[in-house]
Structures are given as structure tokens and as C-alpha cells.
Design brief:
Helix content: under 10%
Largest sheet: 4 strands, antiparallel
Radius of gyration: 26 Å
Strand content: over 45%
Number of helices: 5
Distance between the termini: 57 Å
Shape: globular
Low-confidence stretches: 1-7
């Protein structure tokens, strides 16, 4: 048949491919999904649409949430939030302390790939136990699909899971190695600070394990992380150094191993990933790798993002806390208007980060003000960038009057000796800012203390312009002295809070149509 005419008059191949990936054409697979999400957004933001508290539960242990699943009792109980009222997916018997789960990651099936097992096409949960077992569990039943023993003779304390490349490469990190006091007094020195085990996921495969050693990276290393192919090493004096992690794996790999493979390594004979041998430390860094970049920042706070690439730091002095410098990664040049300082007088500091929508923008959050900033070229200076304000969101403090001088009924003038803080609990204060990528909405949680109770509301803002589209009051009291998490997932709002005496509560709100019968 005759070839379809090129859509919308687009003649550039790159633009055509980009528009197709975004689902602009009716025959593409993503267009129906995009239309449905657009409809959901419009329905959700209607004035007649309400969010109703449909379920509340309490627990003596922390509560976690991942993609429509609520986990309780150290991941032994899984509750789905997709149903009209949350219901239990599975309930496992109480585990022993030796089987306690330290960390977990949700693993989702990659699109368009052939996988070896039918179970690989369904979501699963990767968990790390206190006894150094890495388990892959079915997200729907809790059944153990795969198990790997991590710690051989080298390390006994793996504690943290993180993504290098999301849903592709996973890092398992040990706790920092510390010698007992008696060993330190005897003059014994500990040179290995951390161990990192690297895995490819789905199918789960072992890439290698390496150690972070004082002899290579220095004595003052305090922490280490891996993200997007970069090894990030942090030091006690605020220094942050970046190395090419992929190059390290290739350069210092002594011998590759597969899970289940029999091996004879440094006098040990065993099976890779099986008890009691675990994983071999087959990546030995014998020399300092080439340094990609380094910066000094207060409390090691360092972020990279934007286009062209920029980074955000705080000058490494306590007097500069709350002051952020936005600099070019190419030449360390400070962007025009690149010093951001809200001059907040508050107990909790303001915070800043690159917008997760990949737009290259920056979100700066203070107690009563949210600034969304953008990078743009300086006029007549194409090689220089400046920071400009895209939009702002301001807390509702219209009824707040903060006079330092008042006059009593008798006419006596009274002067206050102090000024109230910017995050005074009696004034509306921003506590959480998040981004819902599927609906392209910026969500904020603002809290006001009213008497003994704190009242919070979740607001949805247009991600492009910042205009308020919807406000949802949370019915439960909000205690600002304890930690809170709020998740907004399509038509679901979930609030997890910590209460006194390490009690935890979970409140689930679902989108409903506000009909006369409901009233």
C-alpha cells in the first residue's frame, strides 16, 4: 500500500523519532496510554472530584510503600492499595531476628527483552537480610525466586541496596568496617573501609565485588556511593571526588565469575553465591583511578544536573549553610545569578535539587516559598549561563501578622524581643515537594499548627507554570516533630507517619466522585 505521508510536516529525522517516542501518532503504542493519563489528570483536578480516606492501619514497625504495595512487619506482610479498599496480598510468618530485612528495592520487568524465566516478567522485590543473603521475592506472593549468599571471608556486614542504573545495575554496599576498640589499642589498622558488590538484574547476574581501601582513596574517606556509572567518594573535610566506575570495573577486574560457578580463588574452593563462600572479591584496585572531578562542599552536599551540565554545592564553611552555588561542570564557572540564598530564619534548612522531570530546571524549597529555576543563555554571551526564575509557589500566610511593636488597650507600647521563625508552626510551612511523572504534576504538602494539632493539605500544581490545580486536606493530625512520607500515585494518596514510642500509621486516600449519595 501507499506509504503514509510524513506526519505534521516534520522533515527532521531526529524530531520525527522524538515525537514518535512521545506518542504523537495515533498508530503508536504509547498514544492510548498518554491519552488515558491526560483524561485521569483532568478528572482528578475537577472541583467535584474528592479524595476520600478509605483505610488506616497502625504498626509497631516501619511501613514502606512501593508501586501500589504497602509493606509491613519488616516486609512479611504485603497489602495492595489498588483495590477499592486495601487488602492483604500475602502474610508470611514472623521471621527470626537473623532473617531481618535490612533494605529492599522493587524490580520491574524491562520492556522488549527476552527473559529466561516466566517469573521474570512480573514485578519482584530484591531484599537484603541481616545475615548477608540477597533474595529476589515475588512481589505478589512473597515466594523466594532466587537467593545469593554475599559474604565470604571478606565481609560480614552488607546493609544497603541502591541503583547504579535504575532497573539495570544494582549496588550492594557494606556498612563501614570498624575495628573493635581492643584491636585499635593493640595497634592493628583497618585499611578496607567498604565493600561494593555489583549485579546486573533480570536475569540476576554477578558483575564483581571491590573494596574501597584507605591506601588507594585516602585516610579521611567517610562514605561512598555509585550512581549513573560514577563512583562518588566523600571525605571528612567536605571533599567529594568522582571516578569513572565502568572504567574501574574494566581496568581492575582480575577474573569474571558467574553465579553458581565453581571456583578456586585465593586458596578457597566453593560455588559463587552459595553458602558459606559467598562472592569473591575479584576487582582489586591497585592504583588510584583517574579523577574525573572534585569539589568541596559543606556536609558533602553535591548534585549534578541541568543542560548544559551544572552542579550545586554549598561553600564549605558553616556560616554559608543555606547558601547554594550553581556552577558549570565544564569550567567551574559560577552561573550568572548562580548564588541562591533565601536568607531563611528557621529551625529546618531550605533545600535545593535538580527537577526530576529531566527538564534541567532546579527546585529550591524554603519554609514559605518554592522557587522553580531554569538555566538559560546570557544574552549576547552564548557560552555563559544564567539562573532565571521560571515560577514560584507561595505559602498561604495572608492572615499572618507579625508586628514587632504592639499597643495594649491601655495605650502601653510593647516591643517583642524576638522575631518569629520563618517555619513557625503556627504559620503555613512547606514540608514536602514531589513530582508525579505520569500525570506531570508538582505536589506540595503544607502544614499549619492549629492549637495542639497540625493540619496539612496536599496541593497539585501545574508542572509547567506552577498554577494551583487541586488541594486535598488530610484529615489526620500532623505532628511536625516526627517524620512523615506522602506518596501521590495516580488516583492514590498515601500518608505514612511516625508517632511517639516508635509507632507508625498509614492513611490511604482514593479518588472518588463527590455525588449527592456520598454526601
Amino acid at each position: 500500500g501507499r506509504a503514509a505521508p510524513r506526519a505534521c510536516g516534520v522533515h527532521n529525522v531526529c524530531r520525527l523519532l522524538t515525537r514518535r517516542a512521545h506518542g504523537f501518532y495515533a498508530r503508536d503504542a504509547g498514544v492510548a496510554h498518554r491519552k488515558n493519563l491526560g483524561l485521569l489528570r483532568r478528572i482528578m483536578c475537577q472541583e467535584s472530584t474528592k479524595f476520600k480516606n478509605v483505610w488506616t492501619t497502625h504498626s509497631a514497625s516501619p511501613i514502606a510503600y512501593e508501586r501500589g504495595r504497602i509493606y509491613m512487619d519488616n516486609y512479611q506482610c504485603c497489602i495492595t492499595s489498588f483495590a477499592q479498599e486495601p487488602r492483604i496480598l500475602y502474610q508470611k510468618s514472623k521471621c527470626a531476628k537473623s532473617e531481618k530485612i535490612e533494605d529492599a528495592l522493587l524490580l520491574e520487568c524491562p520492556l522488549g527483552e527476552m527473559l529466561p524465566n516466566p517469573s521474570d516478567y512480573k514485578a519482584s522485590l530484591i531484599v537484603l537480610t541481616v545475615q548477608n543473603w540477597l533474595l529476589r521475592l515475588s512481589a505478589d506472593s512473597g515466594e523466594v525466586l532466587e537467593k545469593v549468599y554475599l559474604a565470604g571471608s571478606c565481609c560480614k556486614f552488607f546493609r544497603y541496596l541502591s541503583w547504579d542504573t535504575p532497573q539495570e545495575v544494582m549496588i550492594v554496599k557494606s556498612a563501614q568496617n570498624k575495628l573493635p576498640a581492643a584491636a585499635r589499642q593493640a595497634g592493628i589498622q583497618q585499611t578496607v573501609l567498604f565493600y561494593l558488590a555489583v549485579f546486573q538484574v533480570l536475569p540476576l547476574s554477578f558483575i564483581g565485588m571491590l573494596e574501597i581501601n584507605k591506601k588507594i582513596f585516602g585516610n579521611s574517606v567517610t562514605d561512598v556511593a555509585v550512581s549513573n556509572g560514577i563512583l562518588i567518594v566523600m571525605y571528612s573535610m567536605g571533599l567529594v571526588r568522582l571516578y569513572n566506575f565502568k572504567a574501574i570495573l574494566e581496568q581492575f577486574m582480575e577474573q569474571p565469575f558467574d553465579l553458581g560457578q565453581e571456583f578456586n580463588w585465593n586458596g578457597q574452593v566453593g560455588v559463587v553465591g552459595k553458602y558459606p563462600f559467598g562472592l569473591p572479591c575479584n576487582i582489586k584496585i591497585t592504583d588510584t583511578p583517574p579523577l574525573l572531578f572534585e569539589a568541596s562542599s559543606l556536609e558533602n552536599a553535591f548534585q549534578i544536573g541541568g543542560y548544559p551540565w551544572h552542579y550545586i554545592i554549598t561553600p564549605n564553611k558553616k556560616k554559608h549553610k543555606g547558601v547554594f552555588h550553581i556552577c558549570s561542570l565544564k569550567d567551574n564557572a559560577l552561573a550568572k545569578n548562580g548564588i541562591q540564598d533565601m536568607k531563611c530564619c528557621s529551625l529546618e534548612p531550605d533545600w535545593i535539587y535538580f527537577h526530576p522531570d529531566m527538564s534541567g530546571r532546579i527546585i529550591h524549597v524554603g519554609p514559605n516559598l518554592i522557587k522553580v529555576l531554569k538555566l538559560k543563555e546570557v544574552k549576547n554571551h552564548a557560552d555563559q549561563m544564567e539562573i532565571a526564575e521560571d515560577f514560584t509557589i507561595v505559602a498561604n500566610r495572608e492572615n499572618c501578622v507579625n508586628n514587632s511593636v504592639t499597643v495594649t488597650a491601655s495605650g502601653r507600647v510593647v516591643k517583642k524581643r524576638f522575631t518569629s521563625l520563618d517555619d513557625d508552626p503556627e504559620q503555613e510551612t512547606f514540608k514536602i515537594v514531589d513530582y508525579e511523572d505520569e500525570l506531570d504534576l508538582l505536589s506540595t504538602v503544607a502544614v499549619t499548627q492549629i492549637g495542639a494539632d497540625g493540619r496539612a493539605h496536599l496541593d497539585f500544581h501545574c508542572n509547567e507554570h506552577g498554577s494551583l490545580l487541586k488541594s486535598i486536606p488530610l484529615k489526620e493530625s500532623w505532628d511536625v516533630t516526627y517524620s512523615h512520607e506522602v506518596y501521590f500515585d495516580k488516583d492514590l494518596v498515601l500518608h505514612i507517619e511516625q508517632k511517639p514510642n516508635r509507632r507508625f500509621s498509614c492513611h490511604v486516600y482514593q479518588m472518588v466522585c463527590d455525588t449527592a449519595r456520598d454526601d
